[in-house]
Structures are given as C-alpha cells and as structure tokens.
Amino acid sequence: MTVRIGHGRAVLDVPVGTPLGGYAARGGTSTGTLDPLEVHAVTISAGGRRFAWVVADLPAVNTDLAGPLLSRLAGSLRTCPELVWISATHTHAGPEVGCHPGGGRTPPEWRSPLLRIGERAAARAAIAEVPGSVTVHKGLIGEVGGQRSGPRPRVDVPVTVLAVRNRELVLGVLVVLPVHPTVLGADNLLASADLAGAVRRAVAGRLGGWAVVATGAAGDISTRPHRREQRPGELDRLGALAADQILALVRTPGTPLDLGRGPVGARTWSFALPGREGEPPPETGAVRVRLDAARRAGDRVAVREAETALLGAELASAARIRDPRLVVSAVRLGELGMIGLGGEPYLALEAAVESEVDGPVVLAGYTGGYLGYLPGAAAYGTDVYEVNISPVAEGAAELAVAESVRLLRSCST
To answer: Which domain of life is it from (predicted)?
Structure first.
C-alpha cells in the first residue's frame, strides 16, 4: 500500500495597526512583525483516503471559520470533513480573531483571507505529496515548559513527534508541543508566532527539512517556570532548547505506523458540556492577599500566577455563558489515536484518553473551534486563572475525555 505525505506553507501578513489577541491587558495595536506568521498543512494519503491538518499562527480558530474551511478542503482534497483538521497555535502575538470564552466571531476582515490562506497551504501540501512512512516518537523535554500552578507543578512536558521519512531520510516532522506560546508579554506589539514559530524554525534549520508545530494539551502549561525574560532573544533560546531535544527524540527508535487501512476520522461538532451560568464569580480578596505576599517575597513565578488569577476572577462573569459546546475530533492513523479539542485542555486529559484505548494517543488543543479552558476536576476549588475563567463546570473535561474515547473507538471498528 502506497502512503503519500505532503507539506505546504503560506505566510499570513499582519498589517501595522492590527489589534493583537491573547492578552486582555495589552494596550495598543501592532507596530510591525517580529517573525512571519504562517499557516502550515500536512496531508497523509493512504488506502484511498486523505487526512489534512492545517495549523495556523492564530490565537484561536472559531467554528464560524473552521466549519467553512473544513467543507472547502474536504471538496478540494477529495476527502471527508472528519479527516480535515484546522488548529491554532494559540500565539498571543497574532491578530485578534475572536479568542473569548465560549467562542467568538471571526472578524469579517480576517475571515476571507484566512479561508484563502488555509486553502493555499493545504493545496500546496497535496501537490507536494511524495511516498513516505511515518514513525511516532514520544518523550519528555525539559527547561522549556511546565505547569503554571498546582500543588506539585511539573517542570517538564511530554512531546509527540510524527517523523516523515523517505527510506532513512527524514523529510519533515509534525510536533505536538503542549506549551502555551507565551514567551512574549502583553507589552509586545510585534506580530509573532512566539514559541511555536521559534521551535519550528529551529527544528527545520537543524533538520534541513520542514517542520510543523501544533499546540497540544497546554491549558495548564506555559513557559512561565523556565523563561528568563519576555523578549525576542528568549524565543531563540527556548526554541533552540526544544529543537535539540525534539531531534534527539527523533533519532531514537519510534513506533512505525501501519497506514495500509488509511486514515479514519470522526467528529462531534457540538458536544454539550455543563456550564457555570448560575455560579457566583470568585472572590478577589484572597487573591489580592496572595499577590501582595508574592510581591513581598520577590517570587517572580508566584507573582505572575497571582496576577493572572486576579485577572481571571475579575473577568469570570464574562465566561458564565449559556449552553457551552465543544468540538471533539478524532482520527486514527494506524496505531496512533489523535484527538483534537476545540478548547484549552489540561495536560492530564491526554493521559486520561490514552489509558482507555489501545496504542499511543496525542491530544491537540485549539482545534476546530474555541470554547475556553478545560480544567480537570481536581483543579476546581483552586484559585487559579484557568479555572476562574473557564466556561465549563467541574466534571466537564472528564465528559470530553469520554467522548474522545468513544470517537476513537468508532474509528477502530
């Protein structure tokens, strides 16, 4: 059975004066571009079916953009909508495209350009398809990302890499990195792909091939525990650290994917979750006390955690939406189970899905829509930003896990 794999890329121009998304505290509009924002696509064709994954340097992708693009690409790529994914890297230095709890509407000035650029990247990937094979490599990388909060926050993160080979030559890699791309801060007014772009450039430069970096289950993971500053030079440092570890992982034996059956996909476009509309907003008094104590102690990480918790508490009422809905996507690529959630899942959700199905699993966030944070049940009751601003009630993430498992199992029958 012949397997063909392609990669395509298109540049996303951000005009000066564009409102940037990601930080509520940001003042001002873009003053230029630090590094190019891009839209990448990977296509995998086998068994008479084609899987296409489009990854865009955006804060989010809402359903009003994802739906039409999936339909267009299903037609132009001669596949089914369930086998087309559109994901955002969740850069906090990209154009504001409606990244709000519960989802927003894509601004009219961005909708048509994004549809056009997404189609262009996917078409280039399909045209570039060549015979190849795929191996899956899973491991840990350190000193780049870690948990933003919790009683015993982890300081390393799991990474999944799909290495595309033609014989022994690695043509390119698709990296699913569960780390918030938040190296640059709210004071930055330059458009940038942030961490995803820095890792992508560093991997591609060392590999001599192509690289795509999608953001995984990064709801509670960021660069905060490891970044030394929030300036452009730190992007290069962390990108290089991640790239070296990712390519070292690719050089270890991976799991070859038997793609003879071809990719199989399933999707629940509007999965209902319990909301928090009747809940009172969190109290801010205790958070202010914690913030003052962290400032007196000079604990940089604790200060940032308390600042964001306070912001989340102040904005919580806006996240108390009616009838929250989640996009859940599943694809089976041979032994590999792939889940895409249209929100910001906590890292533990990936392991929860993997414990219920056979074979390796990778979980991508920011895919097909944007609902907001999906904290695990254990996080509720803690006074942190992600829980304060989440639109879903305790237990919602576990329901999303169950739906993910159901869809993956349906792809295996």
So the answer is: Bacteria
pLDDT in tens, 286-316: 778 777 787 888 887 777 777 777 777 777 7
All residues at 6 or more sequence positions from 248 whose CB lies less than 8 Å from its CB, including other chains: none
Count other Cβ atoms within 10 Å, centred on residue 4: 16
3-state secondary structure of 163: strand
Pairing of strands 169-177, 210-215: parallel
Instruction: Pull the structure tokens for residue 140.
Output: 């840990």
For the record, the structure tokens of 221 come out as 């993971």
Residue 377's identity, in one-letter code, is: A
Give the rounded percent of residues in the chain with a pLDDT score beyond 70.
99
Which residues are bridge partners to 166 per DSSP?
A: 169
φ, ψ of residue 313 in degrees (nearest 5): -65, -40
Please state whether 103 falls in left (phi above 0), alpha (psi between -120 and 50) or beta: left
Q: In 208-276, which ranges are continuous DSSP H helix? A: 232-250
Partnered with residue 256 across adjacent β-strands are 135
- The number of angstroms, rounded, from the C-alpha of 164 to the middle of its chain's C-alpha atoms is 20
Instruction: Encode 256-274 in three state secondary structure.
Output: ECCCCCCCEEEEEEEEECC
User: 216 with 364: CB under 8 angstroms?
Assistant: yes
Give whole-number Cα distances, 86 to 64, 115, 121, 138, 288, in Å. Answer: 12, 11, 11, 23, 39
CA-based nearest residue to 227, from 188, 187, 158, 179? 179
Note whether 366 and 342 are within 8 A (CB).
yes
What's the CA gap between 185 and 325, in Å, rounded?
A: 30
Nearest to 26 by CA among 89, 91, 87, 88: 91
Alpha helices in 19-149 (DSSP H): 63-76, 108-127
CA 278 – CA 146 distance, rounded (Å): 33
At 119-157, the pLDDT tens digits run: 999 999 999 999 999 999 999 999 999 998 766 778 899
Residue at token pair 């992600």: 386
Structure tokens at 227: 């970044």
DSSP secondary structure letter of residue 32: E
